[in-house]
Amino acid sequence: MPFEFENLGMGIVLIKPKVFPDKRGFFLEVFKSEDFTKAEIPNIVQTNMSFSFKGVVRGLHYQITPKEQGKLVFVPKGKILDVALDLRKSSPTFGKYVKVELNDENHYILWIPPGFAHGFQALEDSIVVYFLTHNEYSKSDERCVNYSYVDWPIKEFIISDKDSQCPPLEKADVFN
Ligand SMILES: Cc1cn([C@H]2C[C@H](O)[C@@H](COP(=O)(O)OP(=O)(O)O[C@H]3O[C@@H](C)C(=O)[C@@H](O)[C@H]3O)O2)c(=O)[nH]c1=O
């Protein structure tokens, strides 16, 4: 199988793709329906890309039920600290978050299931992030938790006006 699936707990999966290097560079598969289905990762219906400068924090974002989104996160260029915050009220890890560095050398792909808020910080300039989601974007169902909930490594943040106004966890809409 061209992927190794490592369970990080809480339903979060770190996917290590097989890399095929040759004299031109390298090739890898990012998503494959059959293999991912076997790993209990649902099919993808939308793919997004963002570009960010060093220090940028995007997050912590999620969509509420029934438009909740599981996300595959992949970094084709640069490095990020990726964060998934558990918002499932009935979960023993509610309010806890997982941090993983994703970069263009480890080629890791992170599966964040529905029920989590997601965010990241760009650890260097001009990074590119791909998100593959299992439910489509729905503006009216978007929610966020304040980014300051996470201890980010770079303290000079660049964030959007929208993200600077996200509520603290205590006031956020959460999942059952
Ligand atoms: C997320 C999204 C945004 N947009 C639009 C809305 C807005 O005008 C513009 C920028 O949106 P945002 O400021 O929300 O972009 P951004 O802050 O990069 O949002 C993303 O952050 C990371 C952490 C995630 O987890 C993603 O799911 C997504 O929420 O793009 C879409 O058209 N489709 C989409 O799927």
TrEMBL record:
<dbReference type="InterPro" id="IPR014710">
    <property type="entry name" value="RmlC-like_jellyroll"/>
</dbReference>
<keyword id="KW-0413">Isomerase</keyword>
<dbReference type="GO" id="GO:0019305">
    <property type="term" value="P:dTDP-rhamnose biosynthetic process"/>
</dbReference>
<dbReference type="GO" id="GO:0016854">
    <property type="term" value="F:racemase and epimerase activity"/>
</dbReference>
<dbReference type="InterPro" id="IPR011051">
    <property type="entry name" value="RmlC_Cupin_sf"/>
</dbReference>
<dbReference type="GO" id="GO:0000271">
    <property type="term" value="P:polysaccharide biosynthetic process"/>
</dbReference>
<dbReference type="InterPro" id="IPR000888">
    <property type="entry name" value="RmlC-like"/>
</dbReference>
<comment type="pathway">
    <text>Carbohydrate biosynthesis; dTDP-L-rhamnose biosynthesis.</text>
</comment>
<protein>
    <recommendedName>
        <fullName>dTDP-4-dehydrorhamnose 3,5-epimerase</fullName>
        <ecNumber>5.1.3.13</ecNumber>
    </recommendedName>
</protein>
<dbReference type="GO" id="GO:0005829">
    <property type="term" value="C:cytosol"/>
</dbReference>
<feature type="site" description="Participates in a stacking interaction with the thymidine ring of dTDP-4-oxo-6-deoxyglucose">
    <location>
        <position position="137"/>
    </location>
</feature>
<dbReference type="GO" id="GO:0008830">
    <property type="term" value="F:dTDP-4-dehydrorhamnose 3,5-epimerase activity"/>
</dbReference>
<comment type="similarity">
    <text>Belongs to the dTDP-4-dehydrorhamnose 3,5-epimerase family.</text>
</comment>
<dbReference type="Pfam" id="PF00908">
    <property type="entry name" value="dTDP_sugar_isom"/>
</dbReference>
<comment type="subunit">
    <text>Homodimer.</text>
</comment>
<comment type="function">
    <text>Catalyzes the epimerization of the C3' and C5'positions of dTDP-6-deoxy-D-xylo-4-hexulose, forming dTDP-6-deoxy-L-lyxo-4-hexulose.</text>
</comment>
